[in-house]
Design goal:
Blueprint (H helix, E strand, L loop, with lengths): L1 E11 L4 E6 L4 E4 L1 H5 L11 E6 L5 E5 L8
Antiparallel strand pairs: 1-2, 1-4, 2-3, 4-5
């Protein structure tokens, strides 16, 4: 699992999915499953997050940088 950080660019509370902006300017979509794995209740635009990528390169979990990971 690879850890990265980025900023919430979009977030739809209805679908629990959105888009993250990585530090290099790349947009990275995340599915509801990545949000659900975080244990968070909501995300706000501009919020700094940690991204746990899975082996396929997709987002496995979106969490706060201060939250412990299971890596």
């Amino acid at each position: 699992m690879r850890l990265m950080q980025g900023t919430v660019a979009t977030y739809d509370p209805q679908t629990r999915s959105g888009t993250l902006l990585l530090d290099d300017g790349t947009e990275l979509p995340f599915p509801a499953a990545a949000f659900d794995a975080s244990g968070l209740r909501l995300l706000r635009l501009g919020q700094r997050v940690q991204i746990d990528k899975d082996k396929s390169g997709g987002v496995g979990r979106v969490s706060l940088p201060t939250m412990p990971t299971n890596s």
